[in-house]
Amino acid sequence: MGEDGDGGGARTVRLTKVYGDGAMAVRALDEVTVEFPGGRFTAIMGPSGAGKSTLMHCVAGLEDATSGKVYVGGQELGGLTDRRLTRLRRERIGFVFQAFNLLPTLTALDNIVLPMTLAGTRPDREWLDTVVRVLRLGERLGHRPSELSGGQQQRVALARALVTRPRIIFADEPTGNLDSRTGAEVLGLLRDAVDGLGQTVAMVTHDPVAAGHADAVVFLADGRIVDIMDAPTPDRVLDRMRGLGDDLGRGRSGSAQDEATQGEARGAGRDGLS
Ligand SMILES: Nc1ncnc2c1ncn2[C@@H]1O[C@H](COP(=O)(O)OP(=O)(O)OP(=O)(O)O)[C@@H](O)[C@H]1O
Question: Would you tell me the crossing angle of helices 150-163 and 180-197 to the nearest 10 degrees?
Fold first, then answer.
């Protein structure tokens, strides 16, 4: 659907990312070739340390690849100057990351419209109202991040990503801090963004129920793609993750998942790196 002939999606070709060097080198991504097709909702899953966040950061142009290529909407990121990369990120990409990256001195509303303020454009009032209503932020718009709960900060970050209607949204555990009802609404909003607006969503999650909202799930392990599942259901996703010997699907990311995995809970710690 894009004028770029690449459907507004993103893809990688033999993307490799190595952190550090010598004996300390960590191969976070090892020749990953994957597509996040335009107008589709793709979930990314895999054990802790599999490279999920690294993949998102590289595809979103926030980190350089060590080797290989990344294309967003047909544009190869490696060929861009910093300035053009910044512009592409601002104009085409919405981010919701685990660190919410909200500016502490701005109110929730100012944080939400910040991308537009930076770009010198104005938000579509009706869409802004819809996003604020669905994310139940109406009462909180005048508050600063420090006056908001983790879940509220998450919703502000999500609103900021949605409000510009970017072609592609990268979300790193967007429901991780939310209660199950708000989590389900957020997933519904991402689904609507895909179905109603033709946006592209790539979402890292540990939650099989969240992944069940996607059109496909990409499974990563040890920096490699090990499987791709179309039309995922929570049960099939959970089975596949168990097959990866994973510690996930168990108490990692909140109540939506607990509904699917009752009896499985056995908390798993984060390594705090992502
Ligand atoms: N900045 C960094 N410097 C060094 N190593 C890193 C860095 N970021 C990530 N890594 C390492 O790269 C590997 C992949 O990390 P990444 O955060 O992408 O995994 P993940 O699948 O997102 O994990 P999680 O589910 O725990 O968030 C891990 O071994 C991690 O320790």
Answer: 10
Atom of ligand 1 nearest to the CA of 98: 27
Instruction: Check if the beta carbon of residue 148 is closer than 8 Å to that of residue 107.
Output: no
Question: Which residues are bridge partners to 16 per DSSP?
Answer: 67
270 lines ligand 1 (CB under 6 A): yes
List the domains of the chain with CATH numbers.
10-103+168-260 (3.40.50.300)
| Range scoring the smallest mean pLDDT among 36-40, 96-100, 244-248 | 244-248
What token pair was written down for 163?
Answer: 């409000």
Residue from 12, 54, 226 to probe ligand 1 pocket by mutation (most atoms less than 8 Å from CB): 54
ipTM score: 0.98
pTM of the predicted model as reported, rounded to 2 decimal places: 0.82
Half-sphere exposure of 221 (CA within 13 A, CB side): 13
**Cβ-based burial of 245 (10 A; exposed 0-12, middle 13-18, buried ≥19):** exposed
Burial of 241 (0-12, 13-18, 19+ CB in 10 A): buried
